[in-house]
Design brief:
By secondary structure, this protein is mainly alpha-helical. It is built from eleven helices and four strands. The chain has helices at 9-18, 34-55, 59-70, 72-75, 80-86, 92-110, 114-137, 163-177, 182-206, 211-227, 232-254, and strands at 268-272, 284-288, 313-314, 317-318.
Amino acid sequence: MRTERNLTRLDRVFARLDREPERPAHLDVPRMSRHRVVLFSATLAFYLAIVVAVLVTSWLVRFDWQVMFFRPYQQWPEIHAFLDYWVVLGQRGPTAVMVAAWLGWRSWRQHTLRPLLMFGAALLLLNITVGAAKIGMGRLGPHYATAIGSNEMWLGGDIFPSGHTANAVVTWGILAYLASTPRTRRYLSALSAVVSLSVGLTTVYLGTHWLSDVFLGWAAGLLILLALPWCESLIARVEAVIFSVREAWRARRTGIITVPEPSPVGAAAMVPQRSAPDGDAPSREPVAAARGARPSAYLAPGPHTARSERTPVTPAGSRRPPHPDRVSRGTPSARPVAGG
């Protein structure tokens, strides 16, 4: 009796890795639905409200100062060492390398550049929007504050919004955006939300950001994730161009040139002729296909006769009709000699 061993989860994982990479039949690409547009509009309104609240030095700025004077890193010093490492999950360099490695493997398995291209587009939007806001508003951080109760705006700083927070939202949120199934997307969305929230609060604990910086960082990262479906058509065109360039480069490298197959020898080809003077339709006549160049014939050494001196012959013999008085060339004439 033959028994089969039950495959464990690890065996199934390795079996899946050993399979030939293949492009999935259906990719769940997020669309710019009405629900997403509403979320984008609400997040943008929240973003603008935070900026206005800081500019007018409202209660939010006073709350920033209260949290700073509370000094969380002195209240709970035992977790300081752990949070020093945890905040790296919002640092752009290490997180970009980790996520790009995972998305590169997915691109290879699915035969598509969409994961890597979407991640690159998200990071580009993040650097442009968050960087411009940081430089434009120039807010100083808690460690460099100059006047108690002020908003510390336009003083040459670069912390508003929080770059760590926005980067955590985009970097880990892109994994949820690129998930293959809705169920995986829900799980990864929850995980990315926990990571981005904890990274933002960690910067407040360490005293490197105001709480309003973190609020604006969350909004800035979420705006980028919600706007990604608008980039799908552009990403698809860029992917098609990259693949076409790759195929052309491979063709040049291998030297394979696609040429049309020649027509059979003797096949009739229809070629148009010039129209008649009376305006009739142009006539067509079959023309034999051109044959390839033949190699030069080998001539045996020795004297050769001119073509005019040779009798045209066929495999069946001479084409001239027989004649009783005709003699072949080269034989002596048999004319009668008149007697004297």
